Amino acid sequence: MLSKKAKYALRALIALARADGDGPVLIADLARRERIPQKFLELILLDLKRQGILQSKKGRGGGYLLRKEPEAIYLGQVIRALDGPLAPLPCVSRTAYAPCEECDDEKGCGIRLVMKEVRDATARILDGTSLADLIERVDRQRPKRKGAPLRSSRAKTRAGGAKSERRTA
Amino acid sequence: MLSKKAKYALRALIALARADGDGPVLIADLARRERIPQKFLELILLDLKRQGILQSKKGRGGGYLLRKEPEAIYLGQVIRALDGPLAPLPCVSRTAYAPCEECDDEKGCGIRLVMKEVRDATARILDGTSLADLIERVDRQRPKRKGAPLRSSRAKTRAGGAKSERRTA
DNA sequence: TCCCGTTCCGAGTAAATTACTCTACTCATT
DNA sequence: AATGAGTAGAGTAATTTACTCGGAACGGGA
């Protein structure tokens, strides 16, 4: 089961991806717009920052933005960051392997065999889908306008001459 | 994440499948042999019985046995019975659908789209693998003896003339 | 330099879930 | 009727989830 935390994270990231290139987005705006409890969202964004997915800017004119392009942010990484390993059992996790204590011969464990299939299938999907893919798939079937600009508390931010200069620092 | 409950259930079912045709197996023997807390196992077996996967017999000579052949018991059913739906989100569950409250247009939800893929992949695997498949795959790669008979408290039960007459009642 | 807007951090907490245990009951067979 | 089994429901400790609170740290502008 995907936790609310991970779901909120995905929603926030999608919003940030749509606002990509428009400068930092305030936690407060994001929370209001996506109807996510603000304090909870703070935790989540911080996690995502520690994962290298987001970057932040403090003080006036600050907020959060993507650290990488939406094409390079995969759902697997996001969900692992917030919910832990994708694998249904620790003994089939590639990113967080741990032996099951009760199972003595791992090789001969049928449950493990099948769960490994499940893990692989899940990982193939989630590590193969980027934020950009997600957005594209949604927009393709329901081509809505690129959305009124996300930020609202800060009305007159300049959107920067050329789009999306992503600071690498 | 697969719960211990579901894992215990699978282990117990595998053992019962291997003992299929040898008459009822005692909870106590199953618990000891599979190193599962007995009282907990009782709950689990009862669940499986309610699901129509197991049948039981009370009194002396009683115990649990499969209600269907190992070929007809699919992992998906077992796991759903104990851990609930396979789907990572209620809104993509086929067996336990529920709309997400915050998501207004389900059709246009990208998260849902991807999670549906995950659910489908998982279900394809788990609803496509039977107890018999599981056992066969294990035995094929490590062809161990069919195991010393499971029961030990009751030494001299007659194994029934022809194998495996499964009562349909 | 001081203020203010903003993120960052540690702790705390209520509710739900998990992984069990306890006690007693019911039912079948001998 | 005694005994050997499963059946039922309540209870509970530990963990996880989904948050909240209060304030410290930092950055930029006046």
Would you mind describing this structure in some detail?
The structure is a homodimer of 169-residue chains. By secondary structure, chain A is mostly helical. The first copy, chain A, has a single domain, classed as Winged helix-like DNA-binding domain superfamily/Winged helix DNA-binding domain (Arc Repressor Mutant, subunit A), CATH 1.10.10.10. The first copy, chain A, has helices at residues 4-18, 27-34, 38-50, 75-83, 110-126, 131-141; strands at 54-57, 63-66. In chain A, strands 1-2 form a two-stranded antiparallel sheet. In chain A, a hairpin with a 5-residue loop joins strand 1 and strand 2 (63-66). Chain A is elongated and about 60 Å long. Residues 155-164 of chain A have low confidence and may be disordered. At the A-B interface, helix 1, helix 5 and helix 6 of A face helix 1, helix 5 and helix 6 of B. Chain B binds a DNA duplex (30 and 30 nucleotides) through residues 3-5, 24, 26-28, 37, 39-40, 42-43, 45-46, 49, 56-64.
Q: How far from one another are the termini of chain A?
A: 35 Å
The greatest interface here is: A-B, 35 and 35 residues
The overall pLDDT average of chain A reads: 88
> Percent helix among the residues of chain A?
40-55%
Q: List the uncertain runs of chain A.
A: 155-164
The DSSP helix count of chain A reads 6
Radius of gyration of chain A, CA atoms, in whole angstroms = 19 Å
Strand order within the widest beta sheet of chain A: 1-2
What is the CATH class name of chain A? Mainly Alpha
**CATH overall fold name of chain A:** Arc Repressor Mutant, subunit A
Counting structural domains of chain A, the number is 1
* Computed structural class of chain A: mainly alpha
The profile of the biggest β sheet of chain A is:
2 strands, antiparallel
- Name the beta content range of chain A: under 5%
State the assembly state of the protein chains. Answer: homodimer
CATH homologous superfamily identity of chain A: Winged helix-like DNA-binding domain superfamily/Winged helix DNA-binding domain
Order of helices and strands of chain A: HHHEEHHH
Molecular shape of chain A: elongated
CATH architecture of chain A: Orthogonal Bundle
Beta-strand segment tally of chain A: 2
